[in-house]
Amino acid sequence: MLCDICGKNPATVHLTEIIDDQMNELHLCEECARTKSAAMEQQFGLSDLLAGMVDFQKPSAKEEELVNIKCSSCGLSYADFKKIGRLGCGECYDVFRKYLAPLLKRIHGSNQHVGKSPLKIKTTVTRVTKKKIDLAELKEQLQKAIQKEAFEEAARLRDQIKEIESKKGKEG
Amino acid sequence: MQINDLINHTSEWLKGTGPNSDVVISSRIRLARNLTKLPFPHWASKAQLNEVMDKASQAMLKIEPLKKSTLFMLANLDSIDKQFLVERHLMSIEHTQKTEQKAVLVNDEENIAVMINEEDHLRMQLMQSGFNLFEAWNIINGIDDALAKLLDYAYLPDFGYLTACPTNTGTGMRGSVMLHLPALVMSRQIERVLAAIAKLSFTTRGLYGEGTQASGNFFQISNQVSLGHSENEIIENLNSLIRQIIEQETQTREIMISKSKDVLEDRINRSLGILKSARIITSQETIELLSMVRLGSDLGMIKDIDRLTINELFIITQPAHLQKLQNKKLSSPERDLARAELIRKKLNLL
Question: CB of A75 within 8 A of CB of A130?
């Protein structure tokens, strides 16, 4: 049997591809198989690369601490960011500012925006104001999340409640 | 507008008009925007995604350029419809996955498309035929200004527009130009050109954007950096890069004509011959052959087929378009038959 791609060399690699519930059998020679697998490796996502860039920073004691810091608005931790390569919300940029500034500089060669700004120039991400998050409302959401078995959401809500309660405790 | 109305409509960017349209297929500007106080889509709850959807769609339908537009909820579309929108460059492949609370808004002219709850809350794009980045920017900038009056964007003065992925932060802008570079590919100079592009922090992608390989002779080139330069500077840089590539492609075409006109003419006409008579043809082969026919038309070697017809063939021979035209699901071998028939009809009627 000859290779399906080049039609010249004998096929030694046999692949089954499923695309859109269409099953395709591919018989490839070694060379074409290598090219094809290289194409597949390109799927290696941006988040992997970003996570790698974050890792360039030497994990100092401060960094260790940072990993546990969570955005009080959306609950994303720095460890989550390292894992998925995405921030959780606009306020994350403020919470992780110290660590994002050098990362942005590495990505863009700058960390200072000079382009347009929204017409009503009011800083929409206010410095972690977090005025009144209704504790009762959060608890209700938590119950609902548990009922729905949306455990990730539940964990996030649980942490948020804990944080508010501990702050309250300190204040009171 | 219904999704089926689109099939009889020629997308603005396919018209084959505009500056340098012998080399440049289309120019596109995309802006990423997020609403403040709501998590980015990947981190948001269903309720929060719904809130984004309500706020964004209500605001968009209020502003003048988007009054005549349609909101397609992706959860209501079947897989062919979704692929159909991707083939028309109205949305990304990523947007077809996990479709709950996702939508795309398309205006009647089909040059503006806004994805809601893709990687960011809003991804709005304007696509023009030919080499027209500044005009594209002016239009989408106006839409963005109008929306900023109705929506509160996540923004910090020092970091700019805040996006889910830090690679888009700052202007949130990506400009891209789709180029047809058959002469640079045939003369094997393309590797050198692509390497130079990468060194200048621009990216090259395939026909369908992120994650797709450059196929045939089509290349999509866009800026990588979105922070630290103004929108105008970014576009200016991309513009001058593209200008140089157009120059190189044009020169190479001229050299090929002066040195090996017969070989080129033979290749172009063989390509047309296959398209006019094939009974089974894959979409990959179609793209490759149409690329040669397009070159022939641009060089005046093929006189009776215009750019619009060729551009249209590029899109209606794509899998989802074929299936929508035939109004039924087709397997891959069935599509290859139907595609060949469609092409024969279109080209032999001329």
Answer: no
